[in-house]
Task: inverse folding
């Protein structure tokens, strides 16, 4: 293990990127199979190679994006301490990388989600609210660094939505105009639907959920949401048909909502990193 960094420093950039992604893919697979120690070993090896790659050449976009991506992997797998350490180290090297601030905000959100808050305790509520403020500040920092980053607008919008902040709709609209990936457009429509449904604008919610369903016809959440809205509108038959339609699907897809909810496993960055590793 100690010699990995030295060998990596002598390899070509193409070989370095390929090796990083081989270990990354192995780490993801092993973590998802609960082989935690082996998975972390692969990420440690990949991290050593990335450290060897940080030689100051170019913009180091691959290294920056890999560090932010792996932080989301750790967060999504409940390895919050590992995510925190990776983000802190990465920000000491790349303080202007917006995805690192998105990853840190999502980590804070996960810590809140995993902490019991006694709603009778003013101190606990105040601590939770300060944590929410810190996460929102990270998302706004990311937007300040790259206003085109749809996921940052999405995450601050969702945070505002969960705290009943009226700025949520503005954030979702901003995300919609910037979203280029299907996954992001799908999440925007889901969240626009949720905001409209909570405000009692049920026809608008139905349109947004239908748009989400069109974008990701194999995902469960829009079907459930449309069934719920159908019942609220007094359309029981339509609601039942929506639920039955999902049950009858020949093939179902992993729902991006769950990745978002669990800290934002960044599939878009993973695809980008793979493409970089395969580039000549």
Result:
């Amino acid at each position: 293990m100690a010699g990995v960094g030295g060998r990596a420093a002598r390899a070509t950039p193409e070989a370095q990127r390929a090796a990083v992604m081989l270990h990354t893919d192995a780490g993801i697979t092993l973590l998802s199979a609960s082989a935690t120690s082996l998975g972390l070993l692969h990420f440690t090896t990949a991290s050593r190679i990335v450290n060897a790659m940080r030689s100051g050449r170019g913009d180091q976009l691959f290294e920056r994006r890999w560090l932010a991506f792996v932080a989301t992997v750790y967060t999504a797998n409940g390895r919050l301490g590992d995510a925190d350490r990776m983000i802190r180290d990465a920000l000491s090297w790349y303080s202007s990388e917006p995805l690192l601030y998105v990853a840190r905000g999502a980590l804070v959100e996960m810590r809140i989600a995993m902490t019991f808050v006694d709603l009778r305790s003013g101190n606990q509520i105040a601590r939770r609210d300060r944590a929410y403020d810190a996460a929102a500040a990270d998302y706004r920092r990311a937007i300040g660094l790259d206003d085109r980053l749809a996921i940052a607008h999405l995450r601050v919008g969702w945070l505002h939505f969960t705290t009943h902040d009226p700025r949520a709709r503005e954030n979702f609209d901003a995300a919609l105009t910037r979203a280029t990936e299907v996954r992001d457009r799908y999440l925007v429509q889901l969240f626009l639907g949720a905001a409209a449904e909570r405000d009692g604008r049920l026809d608008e919610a139905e349109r947004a959920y239908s748009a989400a369903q069109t974008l990701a016809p194999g995902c469960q959440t829009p079907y459930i949401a449309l069934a719920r809205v159908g019942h609220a509108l007094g359309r029981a038959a339509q609601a039942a048909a929506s639920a039955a339609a999902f049950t009858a699907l020949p093939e179902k897809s992993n729902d991006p909502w769950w990745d978002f909810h669990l800290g934002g496993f960044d599939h878009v960055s993973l695809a980008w990193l793979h493409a970089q590793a395969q580039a000549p």
Notes: DSSP finds 15 helices and no strands in the chain.
